[in-house]
Design goal:
single chain; mainly alpha; 0% strand; elongated; CysZ/EI24; high-affinity sulfate:proton symporter activity; transport; CysZ-like; transmembrane helix
């Protein structure tokens, strides 16, 4: 799995090259606008909720002594909760909404790398199908991810070993980010259920792709603008290599990537 994680990370360098070579940036104009608007909306909502959550946690403390310290700590905890949930909600909402725009990008990368596209889709019906699948997949991943993050977040406050659980939270978020990116390619090959099984089997690729996705997303302002173009192309490259390993062997590599 470690090897696959590094493969998922390294694909980002190849993704930047392909974005320029295939002139794919134009496909991301609408998704980038959606990403920016969604990011701003969630940021304002998160900012408003952080104090409310902090006050709610502080009110649980029923004693007068230490109230000020508890309130300060509660607001910090509230802020962390909002940031974590905000990123999760932003990530899955964005991936679901832009599904119809990402599938054509994945198809163009596949055609360049393999010479043809497996089950090429086009038209309103294909876009509607992609959107429906994106909503279903990301709603499922959102719920499962939150169920994982809640106990890990609680354990993260354990002295000394808490940092381990913070790292695990990051990996969980990375996995589901990579999961969503991989499905833009997998939707042409597998049913919803089979795609879930494929990603579980190749979770290292999802984690590697998601690690860079999450790190880019943390870059102020710029992150939400460039994260989609790079992550979608990178995930397409690594996913196709797993689907068609024979075409990416050293002696039969279809392209320089």
């Amino acid at each position: 799995m470690i090897k696959n994680i590094f493969n998922g990370i390294q694909a980002y360098f190849k993704a930047f090259t392909l974005l320029k070579k295939l002139n794919l940036w134009g496909y991301f104009i609408v998704p980038v606008i959606i990403s920016f608007i969604l990011g701003v909306v969630i940021l304002f909502i998160a900012y408003g909720l952080s104090d409310n959550i902090g006050n709610f946690i502080a009110n649980i403390w029923g004693f007068s002594w230490g109230k000020e310290t508890v309130t300060t700590i509660s607001h910090i905890i509230g802020g962390l909760i909002v940031i974590a949930l905000g990123i999760v909600i932003f990530k899955h909402t964005l991936m679901a909404i832009v599904s119809p725009f990402m599938s054509p990008v994945s198809e163009k990368v596949e055609k360049y790398l393999l010479g043809s596209v497996y089950k090429q889709s086009s038209g309103l019906r294909a876009q509607t199908s992609a959107l429906a699948r994106g909503i279903r997949l990301n709603a499922r991943n959102l719920i499962v991810e939150i169920l994982w993050i809640i106990p890990l977040f609680i354990f993260s406050f354990i002295p000394l070993i808490g940092i381990i659980f913070v790292f695990l939270i990051f990996l969980v978020q990375a996995y589901y980010a990579g999961f969503g990116n991989m499905d833009y390619t997998l939707e042409r090959y597998f049913s919803y259920k089979k795609s879930v099984e494929f990603v579980r089997k190749h979770r290292g690729i999802a984690i590697g792709n998601g690690i860079v996705f999450m790190l880019i997303l943390l870059i102020p302002f710029v992150g939400i603008l460039i994260v989609l173009p790079l992550s979608v192309v990178a995930s397409t490259i690594t996913t196709l290599k797993e689907l068609h390993p024979e075409k990416f062997s050293k002696n039969q590599s279809p392209t320089s990537v």
